[in-house]
Amino acid sequence: MHLTAFDDSQALAEWLAEHVAGRLRSAIESRGNATLAVSGGSTPRMFFKTLSAKELDWEKVCVTLVDERWVATSSNRSNQKLVTIDLLQDKAAKAGFLSLYQPDREPHEVRLIEKDLRALLPLDVVVLGMGNDGHTASLFPGGDNLALATRDDCDLSVVEMNAPDAAEPRVTLTLPVICGARDLVLHIEGDEKREVLDDASETLDPAKLPIAHVISKCPDLRVVWAP
Ligand code: 6PG
Question: DSSP secondary-structure letter at 227?
């Protein structure tokens, strides 16, 4: 794990947007297209806006989410809504988007998109967030599918997840997909999250703080932090 501390959110957003844009450009140059999976929540908004203005061949980029809340895309809880409003705008409006949510279906039916998701692997860039309870993507402490989603030999890319502290049913990319990314970044802000990260790095107890799975299984993890 390599940690970079920035002076403030804006400096972090600018660095991260340039980093991700650079990785997407290189992927397009090498393979003709690029894939990016991002997190929801409130932390990535400034990064999304900055990235959406970057000059690159966005029509060759497919964006998806590392996790989704199983709510209508019109809901303010929807990560897809957030990405549509903050990222798939400006120059990035030309990017493709693979939704993890399917209206009128149950969360376990997310497995119907397994084939579409698998076609994008390995993902070129994954940007994770983290909650103060140590969850990342929707790998929640106490999650009913946490053991399945974090098995090294899990052959699913995406699974449903219910957890006591998640306000609604979730779906999440699995650990092998996250750790299999060509470039993996954890974006966190604030002192509390820094303490949770330090705690997870020291105790490496993934049942309590699932981010510990990522720390121990993804040695190239790059953490970016701002106060
Ligand atoms: C989600 C996210 C989740 C998020 C953390 C941090 O849908 O909830 O993808 O994993 O990254 O909860 O959220 P904040 O940025 O709001 O603190």
Answer: -
Distance 137 CA to ligand 1 centre (A): 7
Cis, peptide link before residue 103, omega less than 30° from 0: no
Ligand 1 residue neighbourhood (C-beta within 6 Å): 39-43, 66-67, 69, 79, 129-131, 135-137
- Percentage of the chain surpassing pLDDT 90? 98
45-52 helix and 79-86 helix, angle to the nearest 10 degrees: 40
Pocket residue to mutate for ligand 1, from 12, 38, 39, 139, most atoms within 8 A of Cβ: 39
**Integer angstrom CA distances of residue 211 from 16, 168, 200, 201:** 20, 20, 7, 9
Residue with tokens 């990035």: 92
Is this model's pTM higher than 0.85 or not? yes
